[in-house]
Amino acid sequence: MLFLNSEEIARLADRRELIAAAEAAFRIQASGDFQMPVRTQAECKGKTLLAMPCFTDSCFGTKLVSIVPENLQKELPPLFGIVVLNDGGTGEPLAMLNGAKITALRTAAAGALSIRYLAATAASNLGVVGAGVQGYNQILFACSVRPFTDVHLYDHNEKALHAHGEKLAAELPGVAITCGESARAVLRQSEVVITATNSERPLFPNDRTLFQNRHFVGIGSYKPEMREYPEALFRNLKYLFLDTEHALQETGDVITPLARGWIAEKQIMPFNRVISGGIVAVANEHNVTFFKSVGMALLDVVVADFIYNKAREKGCGLEINL
Question: Distance between CA 60 and CA 195 in Å, rounded?
Fold first, then answer.
């Protein structure tokens, strides 16, 4: 079995190739040729453990993730995890990969795909609320599918915000990086807005005029009590696009709008229908689109399989015996 750590995955992970792998995963999802049980989620004293299995024809696998938000106070990552990849025919364990890295890369690739398919072609200003690992990767991948000239950032943690900005400035020398004073300021300055927080209340004012002529990517809310967006956004939507139907039970950014009648169930669509060509007219007169991701094991498995095969090709990783 091959073991691949975070650094090795990063070296192997070309962004454009990963975006293509994520697109392949959404096409598999559209075909229905996979099996993905609802993820198991266990909680104890503010700590969360997730188990996410999925089967495809060529392989299957499981991601195990721990989420401990208070780790940030200890200057530790809030998310740790592993992905175990198995041979699709024999079930033999093929690889164990750093799950936090796979999560960050596949989520960023999915967000970038939504920008490619849903955001205005001429969009030049990107806004991101949340200065963590997810926000950082979302920006790098977004800049791979659109020639953004300006990136506007906000996080309530000023130290993390400015460190984030300096790191991005080094990675994206041709892009102006600005640290904003509020989430609202970032929203007003941006045509594409990505939110990557664990907030339990909306990040923006409930003003419908602020939610027009923009594309939104929500990746932070993964529990029913978590919400990043106010009623105003949902009132402006033609469709709410989801990475997986499991979001209907998992995130407050779908559960609450449905329960309160801000959006109808018929308006909630799988994003794979856009990629497969099933939906072409994605926006209404407000010209606003929204992609909500809670993460799906199909993306983990397809991206892990891509990384594994690339590692074998290049002779990377550590061979271990079980």
Answer: 30
49, β-bridge pairs: 42, 66
Mean pLDDT of 222-238: 95
Q: Is the pTM of this model over 0.70?
A: yes
Q: How many CB atoms lie within 10 A of CB 315?
A: 6
Neighbour count for residue 93 (Cβ, 10 Å)? 15
Distance, first Cα to last Cα, the chain: 8
The Cα 248–Cα 121 span in angstroms is 29
Residue 275, both tokens: 């990629």
Closest C-alpha to 160, from 130, 189, 194, 182: 130
**Residue-level pLDDT at 281:** 85
DSSP-derived letter for residue 35 is B
In the chain, the domains with their CATH numbers are: 2-102+297-319 (3.30.1780.10), 120-292 (3.40.50.720)
The SS3 of residue 45 is: coil
State the sign of the Cα–Cα–Cα–Cα dihedral 206, 212, 26, 305. negative
Per the prediction, the chain carries an average pLDDT of: 93
